[in-house]
TrEMBL record:
Belongs to the MIP/aquaporin (TC 1.A.8) family. TIP (TC 1.A.8.10) subfamily. InterPro entries: Aquaporin-like, Aquaporin_transptr, MIP, MIP_CS. This is Aquaporin TIP4-1. The chain crosses the membrane at residues 20-42, 49-71, 77-94, 101-119, 139-158, 170-191, 211-228. CDD domains: MIP. It comes from the Eukaryota. It is a multi-pass membrane protein. The keyword Cell division does not apply. GO terms for molecular function: water channel activity. GO terms for cellular component: membrane. It is found in: Membrane. It comes from Acacia crassicarpa (northern wattle). The keyword Transmembrane helix applies. Keywords: Membrane, Transmembrane, Transmembrane helix, Transport.
Length: 248
């Protein structure tokens, strides 16, 4: 069973932690900027629903794959649910996780405020449940989609037995993000990421259904991390925070 490392406040002054926080902020900012920007572009161009969904899925797949690779110093989490999944697996301390969560929310907020300014005041599209989708259904959608994301992160990047796919992890994780948006975008919006949902909600002031995009992803991400680390990875030591250098 994985053991959660608490960490200490001294981590905040360590050069490697400070560097990781800067990288995590930059990569999360660029991820949200491209992701939300693609949704805004499809609305501005008047794309039909199917074309818009496909465009947003492709944009997210591409930017996720690139930012995970670019964020190797911090692990390229981009997502509080990913950070939680890795925390549960013992790959990052609780203290550093809290710093990452703050970092991710600030980066998402800044990206959305900048998009609002650059677009001349165009509304930032928020994640809400589709008509006919209830709260329970929305939460389950987000649990399943985020579980698949974290399961892929562990299987393709964290697992020391990943073998022939070593180095392909960021691309493969980008694929699952795009596929999940195509599968769930029309129902729960397929957030999988509380930070990705937080920035648009803050800028627009629209918090409709917002709690769903915290509860679902955090449950799905945490459970995936616990399950994979418990049942599929055998370790002879407790992983340290710096072990997580190839994690989304």
């Amino acid at each position: 069973m994985p053991k959660i490392a608490l960490g200490t406040s001294r981590e905040a002054t360590q050069p490697d932690c400070l560097q990781a926080l800067v990288i995590e902020f930059v990569t999360t900012f660029l991820f949200v900027f491209a992701g939300v920007g693609s949704a805004m572009a499809t609305e501005k161009l008047g794309a039909d629903a199917l074309v818009g969904l496909f465009a947003v899925a492709v944009a997210h797949a591409l930017v996720v794959a690139t930012m995970i690779s670019a964020g190797h110093i911090s692990g390229g989490h981009l997502n509080p649910a990913v950070t939680l999944g890795l925390l549960v697996g013992g790959h990052i301390t609780l203290f550093r996780s809290i710093l990452y969560w703050i970092d991710q929310l600030l980066a998402s907020s800044l990206a959305c405020y900048l998009l609002y300014y650059l677009s001349g005041g165009q509304a930032t599209p928020v994640h809400t449940l589709a008509s006919g989708v209830g709260y329970a259904q929305g939460v389950i959608w987000e649990i399943v989609l985020t579980f698949s994301l974290l399961f892929s992160v562990y299987a393709t990047m964290v697992d020391p037995k990943k073998g022939a796919i070593n180095g392909l992890g960021p691309t493969l994780v980008g694929f699952i993000v795009g596929a999940n948006i195509l599968a769930g975008g029309a129902f729960s919006a397929a957030s999988m990421n509380p930070a990705r949902s937080f920035g648009p909600a803050l800028v627009s002031g629209n918090w409709t259904d917002h709690w769903v995009y915290w509860v679902g992803p955090l449950i799905g991400g945490g459970f995936a991390g616990f399950m994979y680390e418990t049942f599929f990875i055998n370790r002879s030591h407790v992983p340290l925070p710096q072990d997580d250098q190839e994690s989304h």
